[in-house]
Write a structure and sequence with these properties.
single chain
Length: 162
């Protein structure tokens, strides 16, 4: 009963166990992606660098005139807090973890939306598949592209809900 009316989670139900296991597998695969394939000459360096430039006293749109820094302004306060605690070590991994938390928040929003109408398994798959799909094809860093892609679908769901 994939599209059934049963909306309560039952831990002993095999369909619910499968949905939870697949969701955890997809989240784990997306999390493991954070630790691989950083290239210095990609856009990710610009996004992270502009966030830390602003956090260290630079002026947005004055020191750097690129429109692409708008995504990094979202986590500039977090970058300042990270720099004050840990310095410059691991700034790319920190930025990727911020992206992962944003993506998980969006996946949770998708899950809550689809859980109202569909079974637990379907809601888990629909919520976590975009997270995994974007993790292997996009830069796992906060930028104007990734923020727009993450929140576009979620904003459409909120617009439909009213």
């Amino acid at each position: 009963m994939l599209f059934g009316k049963n909306k309560t989670f039952k831990a002993r139900d095999p369909i619910h166990q499968l949905g939870a296991a697949l969701a955890l597998l997809f989240l784990g695969a997306a999390y493991l992606r954070l630790f691989f394939s950083h290239q210095v000459v990609t856009d990710e360096s610009q996004y992270v660098g502009s966030a830390f430039l602003s956090a260290l006293g630079g002026k947005p749109f004055y020191n750097e005139m690129f429109f692409q820094q708008t995504g990094s302004l979202i986590y500039e306060p977090l970058a300042l807090a990270y720099h004050s605690l840990f310095g410059r070590e691991g700034i790319f991994l920190f930025a990727r973890h911020v992206y992962f938390l944003l993506a998980v928040g969006c996946a949770y929003g998708f899950f809550r939306w689809y859980r109202r109408s569909f079974d637990f398994l379907t809601a888990c798959l629909v919520a976590t598949l975009p997270l995994v799909g974007s993790a292997y094809s996009a830069l796992p860093s906060v930028s104007y592209n990734t923020v727009g892609c993450l929140f576009f679908g979620l904003s459409l769901l909120f617009a439909v809900r009213g």
